[in-house]
Amino acid sequence: MTETPTPVPPPEPSVWDYVLNELRLLTSSKPEGEHPENESTEQLPNEQEPQTERLNKIPWLTSGAVAFALIAQLLLEPSPVMTAWPGLVLYGFSLACLVGAILIKEWRIVNLKPRATELLDTHFNVGLLFASFFLAILAFLLFGSGRFGFINTLLWGMSVVLFFLAFWQPREIKKVNLFRLVQKFNQEGWRVRLTRWTLILLAAVAVILFFNFTRLDSVPPEMVSDNAEKLMDINDILNGHFPVYFPRNTGREVLHFYATAAFMQVFQLDVSFLNLKIVAVFANLLTVFFIYLLGKEMGDRWVGLAAAFFAGIAYWPLIFTRLALRIPYLPLFVAPVMFFFVRGLRRQNINDILWTGLFLGLGLHGYTPYRIVPIFMVLGILIYALHSMSKNRGLTAVYAIVVIAFVSLLVFLPLLRYWVSNPELFGYRAFSRLTEMEVGFPRPPLLIFLENFWRASVMFFWDNGTIWVHSIPRRPALEVVSAAFYFLGIASLIIRYVRERDWRDLFLLVSIPMLLMPSILSLAYPGENPSLNRTAGAVVPVFIVVGIAFVSFCRTIKKQVADRVGQGVVFVVIAVLLIWSGANNHDLVFNQYYTIYRANSWNTSEMGRVAALFIDTMGDPDMIFVGGYPHWADSRLVAINAGQIGVDFAIFSDQIPNLSFDPRPKLFLLNLNDSENIFTLQDTFPNGVLWRYDSEVENKDFMIFFVPPVQGVAP
To answer: What pTM value is reported for the model?
Structure first.
């Protein structure tokens, strides 16, 4: 006779559970009296669900939701008579169709992965932990020099490694018999199996690589002053200067510069704009890879692939990547932080928690707006804890945030030391926008915050700002297809969260406004909000939402048809949406952005070619000058384009007479309207020759004044 096990009573729900359960009952399609909290949300991923009978039935509500969203976003695209109301009304129709599709269970959002039942392992090695802290203190003191040296960098690295070893939980690895593998290869050879997934994956990778590398040398065509700062910093590193923080131009974190300098050093490349772009593109591709992993964690591999595909071809990240500033390093570290954080808490795995802290700390060496991410992580832990109190996981949340905090602090340590020594410079860039450090608030701060919050929240559909350097002014941050599915994804996640109360849905939803905060908090300069550079971290969750919605739509319509004709129509619809998105992004990046950027930037590359020709023929870069004129070309960029990194060709009218005694040939590049410098040159060098250079770019001609060498002096 077998004993009947004693049933274990369910845990007592918290107040938060009770409130959300009431909301869930209001929106649930289940009959009253059926308790959804007893229903397990730990389902298999969609791709593993058992096949259900398909019906030849058109999913009208789902189709309507997508169609209305697409038309709504089309009406919000820039035009001379653009108005928001038609788009808002149609988005309202789309939302109504989506809610109806969810209520009748036509629209089925991709399932979340099941959560682990065990708790986080809290064992650690006390000896290794104390050794890590001891080395960190020594490194902190030695970083007072403000430079990376051999000893302080070694101690710093060892402290991080020892901390990892103190908490790391090794996993069993299957032993590989190399002899058997070789023997099997000799007998059977390699067997390559091309599945549908493999072919789709390869096609997606090819398209992403095309969008990232095509016309990389010409889009964008010119550098801006920020690029000059970057290349000069990289040149400093290559010449043996290893600072912890670059003070040039109000201060900059160093990771971008060291990564690029290492790339140029290893492959013996010139310090150039193109090589700066190449490193930025690889950073973007790594971001796309982590977006795939995060999408897979939030759904399955198809969600990951869809999110990575839309992110990999999107106008928003492609533009700030190709600009080759530090901006790509914001999403580059947001993506792995979110991935390891969500996976670590889902699997209750301490190793993932350690990786979260590592990438959190590394990101602080990348780009200033990343400083919002530690606050975001604290909020993420609070969300997790609030949803886990009734499951005896509250202590897990505390333990996880402590480990994350210490790992990230150790990785941040060199910058922490610099911050202690130079608090004004380290915080200037952020606080100059948040406070009245430079200018007063134009309106009450709370009102500015609310206005900024709204404008940043709708930038995906309406207006992404006015900065032509890294955006197309006055257009949405997302193209039509991505924006439509972003809207549907946000609505679906909100409804599912209310019904199922999974902390991961709320975490993903909250991540977007949190990662928009570096732009929203520009209270002193509200005209700079929204900006696609400071909001770059939101690229990661935004395209996860797009991927979830797109895969949910594809599966919804695919399940409704059984015959080959219907399946063919489904394939055509999916292909049309993907091609439409790709065509939109291609036009935005390689046509609209290129045209706007070329018209607004100065043609320093042409000036650089003229200067390089002078150097090749006359052999003296010291005699090349760019006349100083307000709001004209950056003379440092002309020098860089001429192969003279670190040189400034600038000269002003009061300095020109001092050159009259130098017999060497001279070259002056001047603005068309610079009458003062032209008059001074003609007066100082009456034998000089002045002519107009006909630029390839409209309205970008410039003047050249050439002074031949004094007779008897060899050029």
So the answer is: 0.90
